[in-house]
Amino acid sequence: MVTREQKESRLAELKAGLLTVEGTPTEVYSRIVGYYRSVRNWNAGKREEFGKRSEYAFPSSLRGERTAASYMLFSRAACPNCPPVKDYLSSSGMSGVIVDVDTDEGLELARRYEVLSTPTAIMLGPDGDQVSRAYSRAQLEAIARPALKAAFDASSPAPAESSRDAYRGASREAVTA
């Protein structure tokens, strides 16, 4: 039988070994002038350029993304992952419907929307068209956050004009008059 001191000494050895772990070198390929090539073989100027590259992301308005206005959640009684998704959606304040796929009507609706697993949350836009789908609470949080922010911004009153902004507006009017 191994004693506690032996276990602790072995654990200390393993922790010390973790501090000196080095991975294997990774070969990175990227496009250069129309073809892929190992970055290691690039000249110094191209390697520096590669280090300064940044990925361009289109603004959401240009990507055609729409925010969700409501949801349709497909779930079943025996689903272990459905309660966290239900809880999140019920606390989100978004309107929606929960479809039980254990019923005949729910199963038919799931077939119509091509739902293959539960939980599946179909996010619907203001026009009722599908905007996106989520299969877990983490995915749902990433999708619903912009919609909830948009709903909050729409319900919040517009900020009052500050005295400095009012002064700037007045001084502009005085200059143009």
Question: Which secondary structure elements does this structure contain, and how are they paired or packed?
Answer:
Layout: H1 4-19, E1 29-32, E2 35-38, H2 44-52, H3 60-63, E3 70-75, H4 82-92, E4 95-100, H5 104-112, E5 120-124, E6 130-134, H6 137-155, H7 163-176
Parallel strand pairs: 3-4
Antiparallel strand pairs: 1-2, 3-5, 5-6
CATH topology of the domain at 65-154: Glutaredoxin
Beta strand count: 6
Order the strands across the largest sheet as they lie in space: 4-3-5-6
CATH-defined architecture of the domain at 65-154: 3-Layer(aba) Sandwich
The gyration radius over C-alpha positions equals 28 Å
Provide a count of the helices.
7
Structural class: alpha+beta
Mean pLDDT, all residues:
78
**Strand residue percentage:** 15-25%
Class of the domain at 65-154 in CATH?
Alpha Beta
Helix content: 40-55%
